């Protein structure tokens, strides 16, 4: 038999029980702490999920904002280009209107008249009447406007004078 069993030493089982109780207490404490840590992790995970959702919304909003900025810049460029194209046309129209107003105010000059005799059209000639234009004359005589302008090179087609003689092209 061995010597431990012969001696009456009761401290060893008591020490084992004390160490076991301490281990159980530490295990229970760690289980409580672990449960608390798990709850905190779960709460943080929910907050992180909300943060991720917010981050996604912010990046989506930033992308939309950048697209709107590009669209606005493109619209500004195209509007400016349209104004650049329309501006000269409007200036030409204003100039034409001014010329028409001035010609309406000025008395009509009769070209080719001497004294009081009325102008007489010869063969292949036309005498301008009130309201005539190059297009009206060409249509009434059955010729093209280009041909009419070609045989009357010195004529200002914007200011035809009543009584002015024009040459008619050969048909």
Give the SSE map:
Blueprint: H1 3-6, H2 11-105, E1 125-127, H3 134-141, H4 145-151, E2 165-167
Antiparallel strand pairs: 1-2
Overview of the molecule:
With 171 residues, the protein is mostly helical. The chain folds into two domains: 95 residues; 64 residues, Membrane-bound Lytic Murein Transglycosylase D, Chain A (Roll), CATH 3.10.350. 67% of the residues lie in helices and 4% in strands. The protein contains four helices and two strands; from the N terminus they run ααβααβ. It has a two-stranded antiparallel ribbon. The protein is rod-shaped. The termini are far apart. The mean pLDDT is 85.
Concise synopsis of the structure shown:
By secondary structure, this protein is mainly alpha-helical. The protein has helices at 3-6, 11-105, 134-141, 145-151, and strands at 125-127, 165-167.
